[in-house]
Design goal:
CATH class: Mainly Beta
Largest sheet: 12 strands, antiparallel, barrel
Radius of gyration: 15 Å
Strand order of the largest sheet: 1-2-3-4-5-6-7-8-9-10-11-12
Mean pLDDT: 84
CATH architecture: Beta Barrel
CATH topology: Porin
Helix content: under 10%
């Protein structure tokens, strides 16, 4: 099984997905609109293919992302735990799952099988605003970029503050 390597440049509130040859695949940006944190994902023709609205469910202490595709169908990426380190999304016939690990890594699963890994641990200051993305199947690249943008919507360059690394999910499968 051949894995594909991508990088995501996330300078300020803009995102760009590049392959290893620096070919652009998708772009996105997030902004505040009427008190809501919103993202839009664009294809190469600059058409909006997804819109995301980040919501904080105060009574449950969880984050949810409302996703609307270009056909105006709405899907929701919900946090499963109050630490907001485990997310689930029912998208058409597939179930996507995100686990946020220590060392600034994230794993993405499709129907229980790991399909991608995101590494935000920067190797050098030159790559400070870059995330490395490893995925198994090119067919999933649009969905993985969508999930990445959900997690980064509203996030600034500040380092997240966690009380303990124990709140993060341990990495069980190693394939990078």
């Amino acid at each position: 099984m051949k894995k594909s390597v991508f990088k995501v440049d996330h300078s300020t509130n803009n995102f760009k997905l590049y392959d290893a040859d620096d070919k652009l695949y998708y772009s996105a940006s997030w902004f505040l609109e009427f008190g809501k944190t919103t993202s839009e994902i664009y294809n190469l023709e600059k058409e909006v293919i997804f819109s995301i609205v980040k919501k904080f469910k105060f009574w449950k202490w969880r984050i949810a992302y409302e996703i609307q595709n270009k056909q105006h169908k709405t899907f929701v990426l919900n946090s499963v735990n109050k630490e907001n380190t485990h997310f689930l999304l029912q998208f058409k016939e597939d179930v996507y799952e995100i686990k946020i690990h220590y060392a600034q890594k994230k794993s993405i699963f499709k129907n229980g099988i790991k399909i991608a890994e995101i590494d935000d641990a920067f190797l050098s200051s030159k790559e400070e605003n870059t995330s490395n993305l490893l995925l198994v199947n090119m067919e999933d690249v649009e969905m993985i970029f969508l999930l990445f943008c959900c997690l980064k919507t509203g996030e600034t360059n500040q380092k997240p503050v966690l009380k303990s690394q124990k709140e993060l999910i341990p990495i069980e499968e190693k394939w990078t």
